[in-house]
Design brief:
about 325 residues, alpha/beta, 5-stranded mixed beta sheet, 13 strands, about 35% helix, binds acetyl coenzyme *A
Length: about 325
Amino acid sequence: MAVPVRVRGIGAYAPKRVLTNHDLEQMVDTSDEWIQSRTGIKERRMAAPEEATSDLAYAAARQVMERTGVTAMDLDFIVVATVTGDMQFPSVACLLQDRLGAKQAGAVDVAAGCTGFLYAFHLARTLVASGVHKRVLVVAAEVLTRMLDWTDRTTCVLLGDGAGAVILEAAAEGEEGVLSSHLGSDGSLWDLLYFPAGGSRTPTTPETVDQRLHFFKMNGQATFKQACGVMERACQQALEDAGLSLAEIDLVVPHQANLRILNQLSERMGISAEKMVVTIDRYGNTSAASVPMALNDAYEQGRLKPGQLVLMVSFGAGLTWGAAVFRWS
Ligand code: ACO
């Protein structure tokens, strides 16, 4: 790639309202014991009624901009990863561009399910590396709790709301920043995770609403079976592209879908607990937002230090997967 690219700053936002497993016991036929033992989740956050995805995106974006001193006019592109936009269109990115006052920035959303942040990160990296753009705001934001069927215990206990943001910008010649980013997809597995109705295939009708077809549907076991393999292969490819071994990586930031998936990944790849960032107990699965929220958590806890090498990895609806390696500066 022509222009070196670096990650400048991290920010995140988690809505205030905490929904615990005990709260869920009052809503559906489930138990704290089942949820914790099958998923590792203890609680998740839920957006307030007046909060939509662009509000969460704005809060995360403001935090990374305040931490770095980057102003809205410094941004020349905005990419938002989400599958829960405020509305079908326009994009969350355009709503965010307006609210930030980023008058010189193009803006677009990316939909790649839980891999959304890795996709947005890769696109932003290539925009900057091409020399066409100098500084890109990358945000992942989701309000999935609005898209859940609160009578379906197999899905409603898994997901939560949140947002995370980074800025990618041109680095000085010779400076190490983003070392690799690798993406993959297999659309033949599209029906593992989806919203059945509300799109052009099955438009909204009174019947689709009655049949609860606008809510998140997932084949949990089939998704689980794919998860480890695609994440492991994505990690290996990203490491190979970066010319690094796993032993040289300081921090692994994986998508937080299920603690059992994270444990399996750690075992298969030999990732130590000190290197692995785990936040699923507090936030559940926040889809595209989970990787930047976990990265922010590591930053706030002082686990992410200048000079360290970070490996991020995710998988999600599509089916999609991706991994990236960067040096934190
Ligand atoms: N509480 C109590 N019991 C439950 C619950 C619940 N919340 N949910 C399911 N059960 C029951 C089932 O009905 C079933 O009962 P049965 O045996 O009487 O039929 C039993 O528990 C076992 O169900 P399984 O589906 O076999 O449970 P499993 O161990 O597979 O765990 C889970 C389910 C947690 C969903 C798991 O499959 C998983 O995590 N899959 C991966 C999901 C994922 O990674 N998604 C990521 C992408 S999300 C995105 O892209 C937006």
